[in-house]
Amino acid sequence: MRAQLRAIECGRYRRREVLPFGVPALDAVLAGGGLALDALHEVAGAGPDMADDCAATLFLAGIAARAWGPVLWVVRRRDLFAPGLAQVGLGPHRVLYAEAADDAELLQLMEEGLRHRGLGAVIGEAKRVPMTATRRLQLAAEGGRTIALLLRRHGRAGDDPLAVPSAAVTRWRVAAAPSTPLPVAGVGRARWKLSLARQKGGEPHDWTVEACDETGRCALPARLVDRPAAAGRANRRAA
Q: Which Gene3D superfamilies match (predicted)?
């Protein structure tokens, strides 16, 4: 019996370690209760504008901030704003940057980083990613604890980066949303429209969330958190 259990644990049915969001409404929808660490996950801005691109970047940074170790971030252009990453918990002391000449080199660097096994997360930003490349990234991540995060940038106007096939375990869209209202004039905590467009072993879902804080955690707006309880009280009164 013990030998059979070890075989199951070491085989294809081994339970994967996951990185939960710490938000029950999100983790309950994800197969496994969080993002699988030994897997590829893709994120794209809902649109090609700067606001959505920044929201998608910070969403990735928040995930990486909650990972366990150093983070390799592979870029094609030098447009990352380190203070912005630090605001969502990803300090400069944890980030190793690599600049690639093209998408093909970027994907190769990501794969090497995943196979190293000494990194908490590997992030890359690319426009053209063939299905075979996503399979290689998924295979490189399997068996380790380095989460693979791929930011799918928009190409020509109107193109959907997530329309092409991929081996990613989850695929997300992120859009900027109106910030949290304040009782006085000013700008409150940023909000995102977060869409789980696809996941293996689960259903898609949509949320409006408050953007990641200094610990890398997003949250449901207070009124959304309280809504189920309020609905329950209303139903009890009606009964």
A: P-loop containing nucleotide triphosphate hydrolases
Tens of pLDDT, residue by residue over 154-163, are 987 668 999 9
The CA distance from 21 to 221, in Å, is: 15
Nearest to 196 by CA among 40, 26, 63, 59: 26
| pTM given for the model | 0.86
Nearest to 77 by CA among 106, 55, 52, 49: 106
Q: What is the pLDDT of residues 114-141, one digit of tens each?
A: 999 999 999 999 999 999 999 999 999 9
Domain ranges of the chain: 14-234
| Fold classification of 14-234 (topology level) | Rossmann fold (3.40.50)
